[in-house]
Amino acid sequence: MNGPTLPDRPALNRRCRLQWEPAQGAHVLLYPEGMVRLNDSAAAILQGCDGASSVAQIVGRLEAQFGATGLRAEVESFMAHAFLHDWIV
C-alpha cells in the first residue's frame, strides 16, 4: 500500500463519534470540524476500528460479513483516508 503507515490496531479518534442518523438514513461520523455521511462499507470499516483488532482481523471480519474476498486493498485505502483526516488513530 502506498500512503501513510496505518496503526497496527486502528481506533476511532476520541474526538469523533460514529452514529446512525435517522434523518440521513445512514451512519455519520461527527467530528469537531463537521460531519461526514458514510456509506455502509465505510461505516463497517470504522466500526471495526476498536483499538483491539488488527487491520487483518478487521479485513477478515468484513470479508465474512459481506461474503467477499480480496477486500484488503480497498479497506486499507479507506483507512489511509480516515487516518489522514484524523478520524482514526
Automatic annotation (TrEMBL):
Pathway membership, UniProt: Cofactor biosynthesis; pyrroloquinoline quinone biosynthesis
Protein name: Pyrroloquinoline quinone biosynthesis protein D
Gene3D superfamilies in the cross-refs: Coenzyme PQQ synthesis protein D (PqqD)
Pfam families: PqqD
Record's keyword terms, sorted: PQQ biosynthesis
NCBIfam families attached to this UniProt entry: PQQ_PqqD
Alphabetized InterPro entries for the sequence: PQQD, PqqD_bac, PqqD_sf
Annotated organism of origin: Pseudoduganella lurida
